[in-house]
Each structure stands twice: as C-alpha cells, then as structure tokens.
Amino acid sequence: MPKTSIADRLIGLFDQLPAQHRVAARWLIDHPDDVALLSMREQAKRAGVPPATMTRLAQRLGFDGFDGLRDVYAATLRGRADDFRGRTEELQARRELDGDEALTSDILAGLSGHLRAMSDAKSLRAISEAADIIAGRDRLYCIGARSIFVGAYLGAYLLALVGEKTVLVDAPGEIGFDRLREIGRRDAVLALSIEPYVAATADAVAFGRERGAAIIAVTDSPVAAIARHAATCVIVPTATASFLQTVAPALIAVECIAALVAARRGKRALAAIADTESHLDRFGIYLPARTKARKRG
Q1: Distances from the Cα of 139 to the Cαs of 160, 246, 261, 272, in angstroms?
Q2: Helices (H), 61-211
Q3: Tens digits of residue pLDDT in 180-202
Q4: Which residues does residue 191 pair with via DSSP β-bridges, in sequence order?
Q5: Could you tell me the maximum CA-CA distance found in the chain, to the nearest angstrom?
Q6: Which residues pair with 140 in a beta bridge?
Q7: In sequence order, what are the residues at sequence separation of 6 or more whose Cβ sits closer than 8 angstroms to the Cβ of residue 102?
Q8: What's the pTM?
Q9: Is the dihedral angle over the CA atoms 246, 249, 255, 257 positive or is it negative?
Q10: What is the dihedral of CA 194, 99, 115, 233, to 10 degrees?
Q11: C-alpha radius of gyration, the chain, whole number
C-alpha cells in the first residue's frame, strides 16, 4: 500500500473519525518521515494522544497494529532518493525550507527513536549472545568497511582494553585479508555491514564461516549477506534525515557488546585495563589531568 494512498484514505475518512483519531491522522499526514523514523510512543507523545489511539487508527486502516503501518512509511522512505546525490539534494531542499534547527532536530529525533527501538527483547538478547560468543573464543576478528569501518575499529579497540585478543581486519596496501590466514574454530568474527553492502566484507565473513569461526553480524537486515552466516545477528536501524545512512546505532550496539564482555570477564578485565593504563602512562599518551584549583583564602 503506497504511502500516498494512506494519506488519501485518511483525508477521505477524516470527518468521520473520532476527535482523537483526527489528531493522530493529522500527525500521519503532516509528518510522514517521522512516522517512518520514530517509535509509536514518541509519535503519540508529539501528536498529543494516547499510544492506543495510534494503534486503533492503524487498525482502522486495515493493519494489525501500528508497526505494520510504520513499515509502509519506512519502505517508502528507503525507496526515495536511493543514491547519495539524490539524498543530498533532498537534504539541501529541506534545509532551505525549514532551516538548520529543524533539520538537525529531525536527525536527532530519528536517532532517539532508533535507540529506543533497539531496547526491544530481541535486540537485547542478540547483544547478550554476541558477548557470550566473544567471551567463549580465543580471538576476535573485527571487520567493517567504508562508513561502518568505525564500528569495527571501535570493537577492536574497546575489547582489547579489557583483555580480548582482537584483530582489526584492515591495512594499507590491500593486505588486510592476510590477517584472516590463521582464523579457525576457536575464533569469532564481529562483522558490520549496512546497505549498500561492501562485497569484500561479505567475502571475509564467508571465509571465516568456512574456517569454523562464529560470526556476530551487526547489520540493517536479517537477510543481509553477513546475517546469513551469523551465529547471532544484531539488527540496527539506519534511516535518517541526513544524506548517508546513520551508523550511530551500530556503534551503540558495539559499545553494549563490549560492556557485557567486560562485565563477564571480571578481574581479568580489571587487570587488563590496569595494564593498559600503565602502558599509556609510560608513553605519555594523554595530557595530565587538571589539578583542583586552589581555594582562595
């Protein structure tokens, strides 16, 4: 069902709707992008109606619940201006129309909704399973490319701090995949990939799976190439009002996984962090902490 047909139906039904349903309908008509990006409770709050009103209105339109309605809006949003140039043009037009503050607010509101959505039971379970896998393996290979590379780097960095043997699969001169030569059944792979998917990441994950490594996928779809090889899959939303898919939810997922691993490792993690701090002090990596200002007498 196209989004325009939903808007047309709402307009046609508008005068027949109860008062609160009219308020909710106006929200859907006036804020189509927010319908795709925000949680149902956040939309109800902004519209000024109870969450149940949003659900009942969706059911009146023929959906089982609000999630089905939101999926239609999300699919339309994903299908609009798929190339980066098109998204950038839309971004510029939106900024000209509404200004910097409104555009920034939309981006932040979308991220807020994404993080709330990641607090559902399925996502929390997948993050916990990822931590279990890492804690039970000898090494962790971290793989990601282009915009999502930052998540692979973050995973390798954070987990090394708490004593995990991490390998960041990246290097100049196209030798990054050389690091996979020793991967085996006692190892795990933390792979990150979002649309448009990088072929090399999928190839590396497939190779790790062939060698018996356990795959942890952080991706935007359960049917992504890396998800099909995964022992567990953390699905992260990526829709945003900006010109490029957001990687923020993926980074938060990696941070949560690292925190759970640190909690599982107990004294081992504490000893590893103490050793890291000593090493950093030896090389003067950080500026010294500021001393407390003297009290004036």
Answers
A1: 10, 28, 13, 15
A2: 66-79, 84-98, 100-117, 121-135, 149-161, 199-210
A3: 999 999 999 999 999 889 999 99
A4: 143, 217
A5: 75
A6: 166, 188
A7: 94
A8: 0.69
A9: negative
A10: -10
A11: 23
